[in-house]
Each structure stands twice: as C-alpha cells, then as structure tokens.
C-alpha cells in the first residue's frame, strides 16, 4: 500500500449499501466467472481485495447497461410501462414491500444486462480481429465506457434535480401557508 494509505475493508463495505453490494457485486462476479470460463477472458487478478473492486466495478458497468439500455428498450417495445416517480415515492411510504420489490427487479434487470454484455463481449472479440478495428479497439472500448458513464451521470443529475425541485416546491407551499 502507498505510504499513508490505510485500507480498512470493513469500513469500505459498511459505506456501501446492501442494495449496491447486491446489484453491483453479484452481476460483476457472475460476469467475470462466465467471461473466464466460457470466453477465456481473465479479468480478475489473484489479489482478493483488487478482485472485489473489479467485481464491483464490472457489476456497476453491467447495471448501467441495464438502466440505460435494457429498460428503455423494454419500454420502447411495450413490454414495460414506466410508472410515475412521484407515485412510486408515495407508494413506497405506505407499502414497505415496494422498495425490496424494486431492488429485486433491478437485480433481474442487471442479470439480463449481464447476458447482453457477455454476448456483446463475445461479438466484440470476434470482430475486433478485423484489421480496420484492431488498431482502434482500445480507443473504442474506452469511448464506450466514457459514454456509458457520461449518460449515467447526466441521468443521475436529472433525477437529483427533479427531487430537489419537488422538495423545493413542497417547502415553498409550506412557507406560503404560514
């Protein structure tokens, strides 16, 4: 470890919610296991701490694919009708089963995304041997990750802004009632 850096695995795990552990770590482990056993793609190092971080990050990538690609495609083809977020928040307050159901649904979405990502990796390894792509494959992979997380970041900012606006509107109503 670098000088002055104290690494406390328990402290790190305590800071990561159970939801994030389940929805990022499990798909990451599954993805890496299948990638290694079926595609001969070794992603995970032997160091257990580094392996956990790799599993988590791979799972986070897979989860974002689920959120940004799988869910919108299901909505587009009519297999899923999105619900109003304000209704969800109200329902969550009155029904304690809503939140665990959403977590489970998001885990399933991540598992669908895991299969899609594995298929995409397999396809990419097949076509990147083409002479035109071979020289640019690393750049294209990095650009893909950049776009994935840029879109994720913008989506999260919009969600945060809508929550702030909702609460600001509620606070404004309370001030006017006084």
What does this structure look like?
Helix content is 80%, strand content 0%. It has helices at 9-15, 18-39, 48-76, 85-94, 98-127, 131-134, 137-177. The chain contains seven helices and no strands.
Helix content: over 70%
Distance between the termini: 57 Å
The number of helices is 7
- In percent, how much strand structure appears in the residues? under 5%
Features:
178 residues; mainly alpha; globular; disordered N terminus
Question: What is the secondary structure topology, with strand pairs?
Answer:
Layout: H1 9-15, H2 18-39, H3 48-76, H4 85-94, H5 98-127, H6 131-134, H7 137-177
What's this entry about, in short?
With 178 residues, this protein is mainly α. The protein contains seven helices and no strands.
């Amino acid at each position: 470890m670098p000088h002055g850096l104290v690494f406390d695995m328990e402290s790190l795990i305590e800071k990561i919610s159970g939801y994030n552990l389940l929805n990022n770590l499990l798909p990451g482990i599954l993805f890496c296991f299948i990638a290694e056993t079926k595609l001969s793609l070794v992603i995970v190092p032997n160091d257990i701490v580094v392996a956990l971080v790799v599993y988590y990050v791979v799972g986070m990538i897979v989860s974002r694919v689920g959120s940004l690609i799988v869910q919108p495609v299901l909505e587009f083809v009519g297999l899923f009708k999105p619900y109003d977020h304000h209704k969800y928040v109200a329902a969550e307050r009155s029904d304690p089963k809503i939140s665990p159901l959403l977590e489970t649904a998001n885990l399933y979405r991540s598992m669908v995304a895991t299969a899609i990502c594995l298929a995409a990796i397999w396809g990419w390894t097949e076509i990147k041997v083409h002479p035109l792509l071979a020289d640019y494959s690393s750049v294209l992979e990095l650009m893909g990750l950049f776009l994935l997380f840029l879109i994720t970041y913008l989506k999260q900012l919009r969600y945060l802004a809508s929550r702030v606006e909702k609460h600001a509107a509620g606070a404004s109503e309370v001030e006017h009632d006084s």
